[in-house]
Amino acid sequence: MSLLDVENLRVTFPVDGGPDVRAVDGVDIAVEPGEIHGLVGESGSGKSVTARSVMRLLDGAVVEADRFDYRGEDLYAKSEAEMRTIRGDDIGMVFQDSMSALNPVMTVGEQIAEVVRHHGDVDESAGLLSELRRKYVTGTSETAPSWRRAVELLETVGIADPADVATTYPHQLSGGQRQRVMIAQALGGDPSLIIADEPTTALDVTVEAGILDELRRLCDEMDVSILLITHDLGVVAETCDSVTVMYSGSVMERASTEQLFQHPAHPYTKGLLRSVPEGGATDGELTTIPGSAPEPTERPDGCPFRDRCPAAFEACADPLPEHVVDAGHATRCHLYTERDDPGEVAWDADADIDAGVTAVTDDSGEPSPTEVTDG
Ligand SMILES: Nc1ncnc2c1ncn2[C@@H]1O[C@H](COP(=O)(O)OP(=O)(O)OP(=O)(O)O)[C@@H](O)[C@H]1O
Ligand SMILES: [Mg+2]
C-alpha cells in the first residue's frame, strides 16, 4: 500500500469577478514507504498547491479528488483536530523560506523541543500557562527530555555543536543551518512522511548537496519517506527514487528516476532533459524549452503542453490519455495512444513552433509536417 495515494486531484481557487483558477487539474501522486519521490515542474505548475493540499493548508480553495489516502485513510474525512495531530505527528513539512517559517524570537532548540512535546513521544505537558511561560520566559530546562531530544535531532541532521546551536536564534544561523533546523523540527514528531518544498533552492550548490545527502540518509536510516519538490532535474537525479513530472496543473509522466532519465516518454520530459548535462548537475533552471507555460485560466483544451510541443498533432486537443509504458512508468501523451509509433521528438525544430507547424519523425525516419490546431 502506498503511504500517500492521491488520484485525480483538482484544486480550484475561486476568484471574485474573474474566472476561477484551476491550479491543479487531475493530478495523481503516490509516495511509497521508504522512498524519496520527486515532484518536478516549472514555476506555476502546481507543485506547492499539490503539497499544501496534503497538509490541508489551502484556505479558500476547493479541493476535490477521487482518492486522497494517507496510510489507507481518507485525509479529507478527518476532522480539523485530527488534522492538527497529523501535521507534525505523521507528516512533517520543510519549506524553502526558513527565515519566515521559523519563529524569530524563539531559540531554535525551543522550537524543536516544542514540536517534540506536542507530537513526539515525550510527555512533559503541564498546561497552557506553563507552556507559554516556558516558551517565552524561562525557556525549556536543558535537562528536560524534550530539550535533550532537540539537541539530539540537531546532531542527527548534521549540525556541529548542537548543544550550542540549540540556544541560538534563527537569524544567527546560516541559510543551510536554518534549513537543517527545519528538517530537525519536522523530525521532532517522528513522522512517516516529510514534504520538502524546494528546501535547497535558496542555497549554494555545496550547501545544497549536503542537505540532499542528509535527506537521503534520513530516508535510508530513519524510515521516513520524503516528497521532494523541486524544479531542478539535477536534484531529482541525485536524490530521488521515483519522480512525477508536472506541467501546468497536470502530470505528464511518472517513473522511477532511472526509467525517467534513461527512457523518458513524454516530449515535455525529453525537453527538460535536454537541459541536464551528463552527470546530472544543472544550474537549477528549466529554461531550454521555447515559450512559457500558460496561466491556469489560459490553458488550451486537452494537453496543456501542446502549444509548446514540437510533436503536437490534432489529437492533443482531446482530454489527456493515460499510457502505461512499463511497470511503474506511465505518461499522459496522445503520441502513445493515437499512433503506432510515437517517434522521436524533433526538439531542434524550435523555430517552427511559433509558426504552428512542427515536425515529428514517422516510421520511415523522415520528418513529416504536422499542423498544430489552435486551441
Ligand atoms: N491562493 C491562490 N489563489 C489563486 N491562484 C493561486 C493561489 N495559489 C496558487 N495559485 C496559482 O496556482 C498555480 C500553481 O501554483 P504553485 O504555487 O503550486 O506552483 P509551483 O509549481 O509551486 O511553482 P513554483 O516553482 O514557482 O513554486 C499558479 O498559477 C498560481 O498562480
Ligand atoms: Mg512552489
From TrEMBL:
It catalyses: Ni(2+)(out) + ATP + H2O = Ni(2+)(in) + ADP + phosphate + H(+). One of its GO terms (cellular component) is plasma membrane. PROSITE patterns: ABC_TRANSPORTER_1, ABC_TRANSPORTER_2. SUPFAM superfamilies: P-loop containing nucleoside triphosphate hydrolases. Its main location: membrane. It is found in: Cell membrane. One of its GO terms (molecular function) is ABC-type nickel transporter activity. It is a peripheral membrane protein. Residues 4-273 form the ABC transporter domain. InterPro entries: AAA+_ATPase, ABC_Ni/Peptide_Import, ABC_transporter-like_ATP-bd, ABC_transporter-like_CS, Oligopep_ABC_C, P-loop_NTPase. Residues 275-303, 356-375 are annotated as: Disordered. Keywords: ATP-binding, Cell membrane, Ion transport, Membrane, Nucleotide-binding, Translocase, Transport. Its EC number is 7.2.2.11. NCBIfam families: oligo_HPY. The complex is composed of two ATP-binding proteins (NikD and NikE), two transmembrane proteins (NikB and NikC) and a solute-binding protein (NikA). This is Nickel import system ATP-binding protein NikD. It comes from Haloplanus ruber. The lineage of its organism: Archaea, Methanobacteriati, Methanobacteriota, Stenosarchaea group, Halobacteria.
